[in-house]
Amino acid sequence: MTTFTTTDITELPIEVHHVDRIAESNGSIKPFKAPPGDAITILSYSPDFDAIIGPSPTQSLLLSTTTSSKNPFFHEACVYLPAHNELYITSNLLQSSSTSTYPTILISRLKLTRAPSSNTITSLEWAKLRPPQGIDMPNGGVNYKDGLLLCAQGSPAPGTGGIYYMPRNAPPKALVTNWHGRDFNSVNDVVVSKRDGSIWFTDPCYGYEQGFRRRPELPNQVYRFEPDTGELRVVAGEFERCNGICFAPGEERCYVTDTGMLYGDGGKDLQRPATIYAFDVVRTSSQPYLTNRRTFAYASNHLPDGIKCDTKGNVYAGTGCGVEVWNDGGSLIGKIVVPGNQGVANFCFGVGAELFLCGEQRLWRVQLGGGKGKGKEEVDGKGEWEGVRGDLLGL
């Protein structure tokens, strides 16, 4: 385990641009491109987004490998545990330093220290951890009980992959590892229902396309698992590459991203989906299922990956430009644009109106809702504020 501590964290203002939709649509102005450097820019398309970001949003570059190893340590999961002020992030594929021909994925654990009178992060301790045994090639994750759930994509060996519970002070536990004897493809992302505790997850075939997983035995599908009964159901199919998943407030709606435009080898087909689909969650015989599938949004910049909702129903997705935000009617209201060309694969809400953004080689903290936000003693410890909620709504 390698540990790194930094106190060199600077909070800077974010420049906000108000976009003229008509001028952008008719070509009078060119779409905004992030300038070079480490500065985040916010694009507002609506007064509704102005209300979300507040009068003085700020940014902090927490960690960067751009001038050192260049390794993409900040890729997926992005799970914040407010009770312990810890953040867990999975890396992108890292080339193995051993003789193995397969890459590896590491887990970063960040212990955050905040200023006593505000929500500002003053220092952090970064530990790079090898995944526990059984959690092969971890990807997405979500808060769960006293720890988190992690999606294990699996290895080339049969009988690997699935959803694992990782308590903070105990060995991990396998919750679901197969579909009636058939291995999952490469479990990608997961969300927990607040209504009944069921676990919903996506299973695309990226592991096989990236060369570390067996040939798929199942379609690309969304599953629902009940830990108390062991029941496992397919709740949605017919995806190119199902990816991120989240619920709207009240869980009357479920969103699933489809990143079919991107192949596992990095190739792209611009005619394939870069789409967010919305489903209605209805119940028959007390069992939920998904119906009324429709296109909610198509990402303006490459792919919609990780996805979440705030308490007002606005939908946030990590994309090729950073984070794009739509209202619950599917209208684009704003973007948080990160520098570089790697975008944001995943992100999470913290406390005091903050977001943590995973940008492969960079990890940012963005403070919304009024700059400094609430002091730590003023929040309820569940990662939520009047505009954003990040405890169990989605990853």
UniProtKB/TrEMBL annotation:
Signal peptide: none annotated. InterPro entries: 6-blade_b-propeller_TolB-like (IPR011042), Oryzine_lactonohydrolase (IPR052988), SGL (IPR013658). It comes from the Eukaryota. Residues 173-350 form the SMP-30/Gluconolactonase/LRE-like region domain. This is Calcium-dependent phosphotriesterase. It comes from Glarea lozoyensis (strain ATCC 20868 / MF5171).
